[in-house]
Automatic annotation (TrEMBL):
Name of the gene encoding the protein in the UniProt record: murJ
Name of this chain's protein: Probable lipid II flippase MurJ
NCBIfam families to which the protein is assigned, alphabetical: murJ_mviN
Subcellular location: Cell membrane
Organism (species): Candidatus Nealsonbacteria bacterium RIFOXYC1_FULL_40_7
The entry's keywords: Cell membrane, Cell shape, Cell wall biogenesis/degradation, Membrane, Peptidoglycan synthesis, Transmembrane, Transmembrane helix, Transport
InterPro entries hit by this protein: Lipid_II_flippase_MurJ/MviN, MurJ
Length: 555
């Protein structure tokens, strides 16, 4: 027990070690997330019940992500770091005042939104019947407990990351998913859909409670008064407002998609969210891990006015994310149907559900690199104390997404070359509900445009970053990705005659063999193209091999 406690309190000293911890945590949390989605798909299928659940999630998630998880915690790290340079006592005094002020505002806002949930949900889900809307309202009101807990928890995570306590913060999302899984297995059989909502609340509580002991051990004591005019709170608000606008745009994006999805066939919202969760696993596992780990270091380098180190770290993380996210995206596209069958294909999840979710996943995979790199560039702007540029770009992106959504739905509704080619390319002839594909397509295209704009502005803002060198690196990665695609696709086709594709293990072995073959080709071509990031893989592999001292002496 003492060893576990010591491990949880361990300080992480480098970006790479922090990224490894966060990546491992993201991987475990992602596996639990996949198991969670498998349970949801098996229990409910891609139908009206999951549409209700995902729609009920929208308002609480909006509050949690916009006001706390992103905006406030994004401000906490650089401002807490700034106060910590002076003294730990001053830093915790700032944090205590900030915590009280925003918790008070969050409670007031939650009460308001709980009261007017029926009216708000009529806007978010205009296509729902009165009965479905009533169920959605009930779930939403239960889940409003989660933003309070997640809000506090994520602010605490920001502070713990400043102290480089990445291990303890990395466990929180794992426990969050465990809470939801418990809800599906233990609560749903007794309470139906309401059990899902209570599982979300349980997960949020576990996310929060695990971080409390170490926070107090580091020296935190709660502020005993509510001081809205505290200089630290005012500074946080100033830094937060543009960031809030940007995150609000991102969440409004999802609200717009939900509203449009509610007018489509039953299960459209579920299909979109299940595919989005699968692609989000790559973004979280790769891009988020590196970006979150890099953020405190980038903030520190900027505070020290070390522009050279700042630009070097940004470029290094950019290359690492791109090097790993491109092959993952390509494999997800090539093996999209197999992935959906393995993860979600059970119980009430039908073959048509599988086809639509796989097609949506394939479309999402085209924009994964943009989602991941946009996350890094946005956090880089936050480290520069510049929240305005990513906010404005995000607002523009949401407008594009809305416009593209309506455009693609209109195109998919009519018989034309666009709809025929999309349906043919994704092998969806005769499948109903294909209008849902307009949603991931719009989000992916608007996401790519958002990334291009962010890259353009970071080049203007920080001239030390060699964007042209990053673009040259990208072309090398794409060439290696072509090799991966050819080999993985060949392996996928060849394995059909060797395996029983009607069984789980047949599909699993096809996926595994294709992914391994494609990855091997990617690594080999990366060596040939002299991509520096592949050296880390080589060093890791050789470091694990047994060393023969006598052999080395002979040669």
């Amino acid at each position: 027990m003492r060893m576990i406690k010591k491990l949880l309190h361990l300080e992480t000293k480098t970006i790479n070690s922090a990224a490894v911890i966060l990546a491992a945590s993201s991987f475990v949390s992602g596996l639990l997330g996949l198991f969670r989605d498998r349970l949801l798909a098996s229990s409910f299928g891609a139908g009206k019940e999951l549409d209700i659940y995902y729609t009920a999630f929208r308002i609480p998630d909006f509050i949690s992500m916009v006001l706390i998880v992103g905006s406030i915690s994004a401000a906490v790290i650089p401002l807490f770091s700034k106060h910590l340079v002076k003294s730990k006592e001053e830093a915790f005094r700032f944090f205590g005042n900030l915590l009280n002020a925003f918790l008070f505002l969050l409670v007031i806002l939650s009460i308001f939104l709980i009261t007017f949930a029926p009216q708000i949900l009529k806007i978010i889900a205009p296509g729902f019947s009165e009965e479905d809307l009533g169920k959605t309202v009930d779930l939403t009101r239960i889940m409003f407990l989660s933003p309070l807990l997640l809000g506090i928890s994520n602010m605490i995570s920001g502070v713990l990351r400043v102290f480089k306590r990445f291990i303890i913060t990395s466990l929180s999302p794992i426990l969050y998913n465990l809470g939801i899984i418990i809800g599906i297995l233990a609560f749903v059989p007794f309470w139906g859909l309401s059990g899902l909502a209570w599982g979300v609340v349980l997960g949020a509580f576990l996310h929060f409670i695990i971080q409390i002991p170490i926070l107090f051990k580091l020296g935190f004591s709660p502020a005993k008064s509510l001081r809205f005019l505290d200089p630290g709170v005012i500074e946080t608000v100033k830094l937060t407002l543009p960031r809030t606008l940007g995150l609000a745009a991102t969440q409004i994006n999802l609200i717009v998609i939900t509203a449009i999805g509610s007018t489509l066939s039953a299960g459209s919202i579920a299909v979109f969210n299940l595919a989005n969760n699968l692609q989000g696993l790559i973004v979280t596992f790769i891009a988020s891990s590196f970006s979150v780990a890099a953020f405190p270091f980038l903030s520190l380098y900027f505070s020290e006015n070390n522009r050279k180190k700042f630009s070097e770290e940004f470029s290094s993380i950019f290359k690492k994310i791109l090097f790993y996210i491109i092959p993952a995206s390509l494999l997800m596209f090539i093996l999209r149907a197999q992935i959906v069958r393995i993860v979600l294909g059970s119980g009430r999840f039908s073959w048509s559900d599988t086809q639509l979710t796989a097609a949506s996943l394939g479309i999402f995979s085209l924009g994964i690199f943009a989602f991941g790199l946009s996350l890094l560039i946005s956090k880089t702007f936050y480290a520069l104390h510049n929240t305005r540029i990513p906010a404005l770009v995000a607002v523009f992106s949401i407008l594009l997404n809305a416009a593209f959504s309506f455009l693609f739905i209109w195109l998919m509704k009519t018989e034309n070359i666009f709809s025929r080619e999309v349906i043919s390319f994704l092998d969806l002839r005769g499948v109903e509900g294909v209008l849902v594909l307009a949603l991931p397509l719009a989000l992916s295209i608007s996401g790519i445009i958002q990334f291009i704009l962010l890259l353009f502005f970071i080049d203007l803002k920080c001239k030390e970053i060699e964007v042209k060198a990053l673009i040259r690196f990208s072309f090398k990665v794409i060439l290696a990705g072509v090799a991966l695609s050819v080999v993985a696709l060949t392996a996928r086709i060849f394995s059909v005659g060797l395996l029983d594709m009607k069984t789980f293990w047949g599909v699993f072995l096809q996926t595994l063999s294709s992914a391994v073959a494609g990855s091997a080709a990617y690594i080999l071509f990366s060596f040939f193209l002299k991509i520096g990031e592949v050296a880390a893989i080589k060093d890791f592999v050789f470091s694990k091999l047994p060393k023969n001292k006598n052999l080395s002496q002979d040669y």
